[in-house]
Amino acid sequence: MAETIRETGRLEGTGIELKLQNKLKAGDIDILTESHIIEVKKSLSALDEKQLDKLINPSNKNYFNYDNREVIYYIEDVTVKNKTQSDLVEKLKDQNIKLISSLEELKEVISK
Predict the structure, then answer these.
(1) Of 5, 37, 82, 97, which residue is the least packed, with the fewest Cβ within 10 Å?
(2) Measured between alpha carbons, how far is 93 from 29 in angstroms, rounded to an integer?
(3) Contact 70/36 with Cβ under 8 angstroms?
(4) 25 pLDDT exceeds 90?
(5) In what order do the strands lie in the sheet with 25-33?
(6) Per-residue pLDDT reduced to its tens digit, 29-62
(7) Pick from 48, 43, 102: which is nearest to 77 by CA?
(8) Has residue 64 got a pLDDT over 80?
(9) CB 6 within 8 A of CB 14
(10) Residue 24: which pLDDT band, with cuts at 50, 70 and 90?
(11) How many Å apart are CA 80 and CA 47, to the nearest integer?
């Protein structure tokens, strides 16, 4: 996946661990581009709402999207298996977070 992003010329980093001033871990970023934070998951069940909140909620004490980059979730299997996952997908849409499941679509979004 990082290689696909690298091909766009916009890759800034992968596997970035972010720490608070007190050295405690605030979170991590799977892939960072000049205008996107991309979180990579195998399925919807791997989505963590606490992590999502750190990316979209400036009042979260562990918020780390200070550059206001667009958040993308790249999820290999986007099959909705229960109401909780369905609600989560709706929450992502309501927050204007892109849910992408193909490398071609990801490359197209990153290249814009």
Answers:
(1) 82
(2) 20
(3) yes
(4) no
(5) 11-19, 25-33, 36-43, 70-77, 98-100
(6) 999 999 999 999 999 999 888 989 999 999 998 8
(7) 43
(8) yes
(9) no
(10) confident
(11) 12
